[in-house]
Write a structure and sequence with these properties.
Structural class: alpha/beta
Distance between the termini: 36 Å
Radius of gyration: 18 Å
Number of helices: 10
Shape: globular
Largest sheet: 8 strands, mixed
Strand content: 15-25%
Length: 280
């Protein structure tokens, strides 16, 4: 395992990376890894913990937990998308991190009661069709006193770059390509879901990161393509149709990119709610 938690990019093995590979190489590298590090600064597992990651994507939270905390007893990742699991398995095997991978929905976790001491969910809860059922499942598989740690983007109004880019996407493609990740930001609603699922000691606090890209157009192309692995309305489109939609957005994105450039870099701020709840 590399001490930094970073490994060779998956696309070095494939000339035509799939959306999950693009997600790993752009969204994870520039966005979700920095966010995971901030989350772990606040809510890190302890040595000996059994750690679950729900809607794990390619497993960045598990990878960074393994780098930060020695002697974790168990690491398990669950995602509904088999492409994410395949990429995550390849990256963790290369890094020498032992992770169990499961393809399953968050509403039906393939575990017995009380198997885990910590359960993370980074940018997944807003996508679950039945949020209460998903959190009840997380509560079920946690041991008494175990923690559920969820990270959810705050409202689109707190992300003017993405809002402006989505306006471009809608104008030229008819798709709100970038709104879904910001659709569950109300703190009262978040607290209510956790309470209905049986959690106690629920806290919600802000966490923020800065995204910096030296290659804005390249990264934006991969970000938009990678987002199709998470956005339901675009998941089933053939690759050539996804690429056509992305190109239509990129052809008209320069005015938005120019507003957020600092020299050669694209600089944007991202804001999330960090939710920590405990099973009674």
């Amino acid at each position: 395992m590399h001490e930094s938690g970073e490994v060779m990019t998956v696309s070095q093995k494939s000339p035509t990376p799939n959306p999950a590979q693009m997600y790993e190489e752009v969204l994870v590298t520039n966005l979700f890894r920095p966010l995971a590090l901030e989350v772990l600064n606040v809510a890190s597992p302890a040595p000996g913990d059994r750690v679950l990651d729900v809607a794990c994507g390619t497993g960045i939270m598990l990878r960074e937990a393994a780098v930060r905390v020695a002697n974790l007893q168990r690491l398990a990742g669950v995602d509904i998308n088999p492409m994410m699991i395949d990429v995550g398995r390849a990256v963790t095997e290369q890094a020498g991190i032992d992770v169990e991978w499961y393809e399953a929905p968050a509403e039906s976790l393939p575990f017995a009661e009380s198997e885990f001491s910590s359960a993370y969910c980074q940018q997944g809860l807003q996508f679950f069709p039945d949020k209460v059922a998903a959190m009840r499942e997380t509560q079920r598989v946690l041991e008494p006193g175990g923690r559920a740690i969820s990270v959810i983007w705050r409202q689109i109004e707190d992300h003017p770059f993405i809002g402006a880019l989505n306006d471009v996407a809608y104008e030229h493609t008819g798709h709100n390509m970038l709104l879904d990740p910001f659709s569950f930001s109300d703190e009262d609603a978040i607290r209510d879901v956790h309470q209905q699922a049986g959690f106690a000691d629920i806290s919600i606090q802000p966490v923020s990161i800065t995204y910096s890209s030296p290659s804005p157009k390249r990264d934006l192309r991969m970000m938009l393509m990678g987002a199709t692995a998470a956005i339901r309305s675009l998941q089933e489109l053939p690759p050539e149709e996804r690429l056509e939609l992305v190109n239509q957005v990129l052809d008209h994105a320069d005015p938005v990119l120019d507003r957020y450039r600092d020299g050669d870099h694209l600089i944007t701020d991202w804001h999330a709610n960090l939710v920590i709840a405990r099973k009674g």
